[in-house]
Amino acid sequence: MDQVAKKAVVIREVWEGNLEFEFSLIRSALKSHSCISIDTEFPGTVIPDMKNRKFFDLNPEETYSQMKANVDASKLIQLGLTLSDHCGNLPDFGWGACFVWQFNFREFDVEKDLQNFSSIKLLKQNGIDFSANKTYGVRSEDFARLFRGCFGPNCTWVTFHGGYDFGYLIKALTNSDLPRDLGTFSNLLSHCFGNSMYDVKAMMEPLGLRGGLESLAEYFNLVRVAGKSHQAGSDSLLTMQLFMKVKQWCVYRDYSTVLIPCMPYGLNLEVNRRVEV
Fold this sequence. Notes:
The chain is an alpha/beta fold and 277 residues long. It contains 11 helices and 6 strands.
C-alpha cells in the first residue's frame, strides 16, 4: 500500500449523528476506490455445534447452518470498511491523511443479549465501549438504507474468513434471518455484492499457508498501521493490506489460480472471474 507508507491512517468512527456525512464521503471515494474490505465484531459464538465438532470437520452446508444459527441469534457490534484502489491506495480527499471507516451499532445490549462472555471480555479489552454504542450507535435500518444506495456492481469485496462478516451484513441489509440453505445464501450474496469476492484465508490454502489474520500478516512482514486488533476498522485495514500483498506476491510468482474469486472460507463455492491485476 503506497499511501500507507507515506501518510497517517485515520479510522473514522461512525455514529448515528455523523452517519449521513460519512456515507457521503464513502460515495465520493468509491469513484476511484472500488476495492472494499470488511470486518465485523459480534458477540462471539453463542450457539455451539451440538456435536462438538471442529470447524474442519464440517462440510460447507454444515458450516453455513452453524453460521446461520449464530448470526440469527445475535447482533452486530461493529463493522469496519476499508476502501482502496487496485494499487492499494486509500482515499485521502486531499486532506493529508488516509481514511478507514468503523461503524458502531446500537442494537446489542451487553446487559441483556445473548453473548459469549470470553469474546465480550476481549472486545472490552481492545477498547469497544458498549455503553457508547448503545447510546450513540448507528441503527441497522439507517445503515442498510444508506449502504444499499452506495455500492455498485463494479465493486470488489475482500474479507478474511468472511462468512460471518457477510452473514451479519446480509442480515442488516435484509432486516431478516439468513436464508435456510447455503445455495439460497450464495445467490443472495451474489445479488447483493456481485461475483468479485475474495476471502484472503481461502486464498492462502492453495499456498499451504494457514493461520489467523495477525499471524499471516506477520508472515508477509505487514504491520498494523492504525487501531487495535479486534476492532473492525483496524482489522478491515489489515485484511486489505494482506490482500494487496498476496495479490502482488501471486502475480510475481504466476500463481494465477489463487486469484480466482470465491465464496467465504469454509463455504467453498467458486465464481469464475479473475481479479484485476
